[in-house]
Amino acid sequence: MVLSLSEYKVEFLRGLADNTRLKIVEALKEQEKTVSELVETVGSSQANISTHLKLLKTTGIVKSLSKGKYMYYSLRDEAICEFLNSLEEMLILMRKKAFEGA
């Protein structure tokens, strides 16, 4: 089934709409990591991290690469980092305006 652009946007945003998944994505902004490294960084169980990684792969946010006996996860595209940085800037600006009463 091919998703419309609108449906793809919803799926992409749903992929980010969870605290654990967002922590995983933020950790992967720095460099690729194994599940064990993500468990340590995010502070969640291996089963939980693996479940979230599966959804992140399905939504096209994360990709994986097998190297020897380890599976490494990374962001699919640098544009995801740019999107998150733009989102942070927008949220900071919106929050500032809300506090100023604008």
TrEMBL record:
Keywords: DNA-binding, Transcription, Transcription regulation. The keyword Secreted does not apply. GO terms for molecular function: DNA binding; DNA-binding transcription factor activity. It holds the Pfam family HTH_5. SUPFAM superfamilies: Winged helix' DNA-binding domain. InterPro entries: ArsR-like_HTH, HTH_ArsR_DNA-bd_dom, HTH_MetalResp_TranReg, WH-like_DNA-bd_sf, WH_DNA-bd_sf. Residues 1-95 form the HTH arsR-type domain. The keyword Aminoacyl-tRNA synthetase does not apply. PANTHER family: TRANSCRIPTIONAL REGULATOR (PTHR33154:SF36), TRANSCRIPTIONAL REGULATOR, ARSR FAMILY (PTHR33154). This is Regulatory protein ArsR. It comes from Tepidanaerobacter acetatoxydans (strain DSM 21804 / JCM 16047 / Re1). The lineage of its organism: Bacteria, Bacillati, Bacillota, Clostridia, Thermosediminibacterales.
